[in-house]
From TrEMBL:
Pfam families: Aldedh. Residues 1-448 form the Aldehyde dehydrogenase domain. This is Aldehyde dehydrogenase family protein. InterPro entries: Ald_DH/histidinol_DH, Ald_DH_C, Ald_DH_CS_GLU, Ald_DH_N, Aldehyde_DH_dom. One of its GO terms (molecular function) is oxidoreductase activity, acting on the aldehyde or oxo group of donors, NAD or NADP as acceptor. It comes from the Bacteria. Keywords: Oxidoreductase.
Length: 454
């Protein structure tokens, strides 16, 4: 498998892909090793993960450089991601013992009752490339702490990062029989689906997620899916600092080159402030430096996958044909590597692909609305349901609107953020199940109800 630097087109290295037999061998070893890992106490496993947490910091320079080289995000954003992943790990280190401890329900009377939280067994973690540390951490860290063995398949676009994660987990003390890496692309993922794993935890696109859910349904094991989104924002008429909100929400749409599951993907703005907001938004977008992700001050680096450029071009073409107006950007940047101009489209409608299909790139549509009711209707006009945000000076107004939006996450005066303490879950085509928070600790355990009669 060739590993290509998306910012330069250069071949970084070539890695041997695992075939189905090699992946099966890894699974068999994990199956054998899982009981010994589960026999450790939660505190012992947490201590090992704490060492991993420290190693991520100690080696962050090399990790950030690898991540930027293989997926194209600006170097500073790679550091931000590693720091963000460490914050999530700290949440699991601090809270896992509490949520995995046995719970006594009744200790009096003839029959005593308790709940224990047992590991699932050997689970698969089939992962995405856009935030490999963050989305990986959501799964393999709590899964390991709960006593599972993990067969981790990093995305083919961030394989070297996946191998760093493996190296550091081993260095921290996770045995190879508790964590292993399946190396490869879709075929490696397919091989994992054929094996009798005890749970499938997937991060990626709706199409692959739907396919995986159908493929493993007959096994009757947990299948969690963290999928894409078409996340809307509504900017109400009473915001105080229009240019500040415009700059902050532009960052929410374009950070990581728009390649975030919770990127802002659609913006609805109240007509009374629309012109001022758009002007400030476009000014902000035009101020960004685009270029090599290793260059100082670059905000828009390279897109990870060359194929996404075609998706962006098609969305822009469709929008323009249906009456949209280009405020800035609109085409690929003519240089070696996968670069696209940060693009803002106005006069858009929900009938355009741009406002319905996940863009996963540096483009955004902004639409004028005349009331909260219209905004709510348009925000809910989607097959996705990951996050939604409202900017207003009025908290009750924000909460009343957000209560009516069918999404797993609600933002008031903020966007494109994740908290380890809150559940991360998509509705509709954005996914199934929950990671992060105490629910995302228990997602990797199966409860057993104990009836104990003396
Ligand atoms: P993808 O669906 O193309 O690939 C995801 C993983 O699935 C990769 O490891 C890939 O090799 C594997 N895969 C592909 N085909 C497979 C098959 N037939 N069987 C088994 N495995 C297979 O997604 P991607 O491009 O890596 O990630 C981008 C998508 O992920 C976007 O839609 C984004 O919104 C979503 N995402 C969601 C979240 C979230 O938390 N909800 C987080 C990050 C990314």
């Amino acid at each position: 498998m060739d590993i290509i630097n998306p910012a330069t087109g250069a071949l970084m290295t070539t890695v041997q892909e695992d075939n189905a037999a090699a992946i099966k061998e890894k699974y068999v070893s994990l199956k054998k090793g899982q009981p010994a890992w589960a026999a450790k106490t939660v505190a012992e496993r947490v201590a090992i993960i704490e060492t991993f947490y420290q190693l991520l910091d100690a080696e962050k320079d090399e990790l950030a450089q690898t991540l930027t080289a293989e997926m194209g995000k600006p170097l500073q954003q790679s550091y931000n991601e590693i720091n963000g992943a460490r914050a999530r790990i700290l949440f699991f280190i601090t809270n896992s013992e509490k949520y995995l401890a046995e719970e006594w329900i009744t200790t009096e009377g003839g029959t005593q009752e308790k709940i224990s939280y047992d590991p699932l067994g050997v689970i698969a973690n089939i992962s995405a490339w856009n935030y490999p540390y963050l989305v990986g951490t959501n799964v393999f860290v709590p899964a390991l702490i709960a006593g599972n063995a993990v067969l981790y398949k990093p995305s083919e676009y961030t394989l070297l990062t996946g191998l760093h994660i493996q190296r550091l987990l081993y260095k921290a003390g996770v045995p190879p029989q508790a964590f292993d890496v399946a190396i490869g692309a879709a075929a490696a993922g397919e091989a994992i689906l054929e094996l009798p794993l005890n749970g499938y935890f997937f991060t990626g696109s709706y199409n692959t997620g739907k396919y995986i859910a159908q493929k493993v349904a007959h096994k009757l094991v947990p299948c969690q899916l963290e999928l894409g989104g078409k996340d809307p924002l509504y900017i109400a008429d009473d915001i105080a600092d229009i240019s500040g909100v415009a700059a902050g929400t532009a960052d929410g749409a374009f950070y990581n080159n728009g390649q975030s599951c919770c990127s802002v993907e659609r913006i609805y703005v109240h007509e009374t402030i629309y012109d001022q907001y758009v002007q400030a938004f476009v000014k902000e977008v035009k101020s960004w430096k685009t270029g090599l992700p290793t260059d100082e001050g670059v905000y828009i680096g390279a897109l990870t996958r060359p194929a996404q450029i075609t998706v962006l071009e098609q969305q822009i073409e469709d929008a323009l044909a249906k009456g949209a107006e280009l405020a800035t950007g609109g085409k690929r940047i003519n240089r070696e590597g996968n670069y696209f101009e940060p693009t803002v489209l106005l006069n858009v409608t929900n009938q355009m692909d741009l406002m319905q299909e996940e863009s996963f790139g540096p483009i955004i549509g902004i639409m004028k609305v005349s009331s909260d009711e219209e905004a709510i209707e348009l925000m809910n006009d989607t097959s996705y349901g990951l996050t939604a945000g409202v900017f207003t000076s009025n908290q009750p107004r924000a909460e009343a609107i957000l209560q009516q939006i069918n999404s797993g996450t609600a933002y008031w005066n903020c966007c494109d953020r994740v908290s380890a303490a809150l559940p991360w879950s998509g509705r509709q085509h954005s996914g199934l199940g929950t990671t992060l928070s105490h629910l995302g600790i228990r997602a990797f355990a199966q409860p057993k109800g104990w009836h104990l009669r003396r």
